[in-house]
Amino acid sequence: xxxxxxxxxxxxxxxxxxxxxxxxxxxxxxxxxxxxxxxxxxxxxxxxxxxxxxxxxxxxxxxxxxxxxxxxxxxxxxxxxxxxxxxxxxxxxxxxxxxxxxxxxxxxxx
Length: 110
Description:
By secondary structure, this protein is mainly α. It has 6 helices and 2 strands, in the order ααααββαα. A two-stranded antiparallel ribbon has the order 1-2. A hairpin with a 2-residue loop joins strand 1 (about 70-75) and strand 2 (about 80-85). It is elongated, with a radius of gyration of 17 Å. The protein starts with 10 loop residues before the first helix and ends in a 6-residue tail after the last helix. The model has no long low-confidence stretch (mean pLDDT about 90).
């Protein structure tokens, strides 16, 4: 498999691709929706809510945390997760700017 060559793209292009990847799996979408629904930190009941094995849930949480969309705090022997609202707002702004590119140039191209 070839390299992704991400270094030839701008930081913004790479960031948009990473955000899109976060929404590219329904488990990550379900995790985010559940965290928003509860509007509080959650410690461990995602397995029952999402219906996937704990290692799978942990991997998805790791992806979301690496992107900064969620944050985790160690509480005793478990990690509690919640939405990082500051980074969520930045992601929304970045994605909105990308998705709104068509607004200014509504001409026919073909």
